[in-house]
Amino acid sequence: MIIYNYYFAILILALIFFFISNKNISILISIIIIIIIGYYYFSKINIYNETLQSNFINKIKTLNNDIQNKPPVFDTNFYLKKFPEGIRYLKNDKYLIELILNLRFVKIFDDAKYSKLLLLFEDFMKVYIFMLGDRYDIRDYFTTFLDLRLGIIKELYGIYVICPIKVKNIYGINTFETIKKSIDDFMKHSRKMILIIEKYAFEKKGIYYLQDTKYKPFEKNINEVF
Question: Do the domain assignments include residue 225?
Fold first, then answer.
């Protein structure tokens, strides 16, 4: 929330000081009042930030628990052979963290699919981070990144098959609306990630060509979802 931002707080305190100091009250009293208000305000900001950090840590713990003691997943496309001991790369993108947490209800119907989806997200972020950190050559791994993105999108669409609409009445979740929103959100968010990689590759790394990622006509895009 913006009211718990330090810069916003400083602005508010400056405005309060301006109005108080022009009401024939001594500057010293004005400063004392500002200090008291500032102490209270900054304490609230610290509490708010600590709560956010605590909530985020709990979310990561939840995802770590979701992948504990899972059997290996053999995927000939992405070579994902086993689950990591904990989330290492996905936690760097809070947007994707919230997206996958909104889909935890999938565990009720197909825990293996949910676990695989979580693993794909982790590997997706790993490739993204390593390319931007120059640990992976973008020319070699950009296609892998796009393949992982496509794999996630297909897995998200696959959730429609296993989740009945009646969950809405049992758990208060409209599964189809949640799935649709998750797909749309992921496609938009990952599209921004693609643009960041392309800009970095073209402008910073001097790469002249990467695989085309523009939207394609349906008849030319039967096996791909962008």
Answer: no
Residue 24: which domain range? 2-63
Distance CA 98, CA 112 (A): 20
C-alpha span between 180 and 162 (Å, rounded)? 14
Contacts of 31 (CB under 8 A, 6+ apart): 17
Q: Which of 177, 138, 140 is nearest to 159 (CA)?
A: 177
Check if the beta carbon of residue 111 is closer than 8 Å to that of residue 71: no
pTM score, two decimals? 0.71
d(CA 196, CA 190): 10
Residue 105 inside a domain? The answer is yes
193 and 94 housed in the same domain: yes
Alpha carbon distance 134, 78 (integer Å): 20
* Residues 78 and 184 both lie in one domain: yes
Q: Are 205 and 138 in contact (CB under 8 A)?
A: yes
Q: Are both 127 and 29 inside the same structural domain?
A: no
Per-residue pLDDT tens for 165-223? 655 555 667 788 888 999 999 999 999 999 999 999 988 888 888 887 765 544 445 44
Question: Residue 116's CB: how many other CB atoms inside 10 A?
Answer: 21
Distance CA 87, CA 121 (A): 10
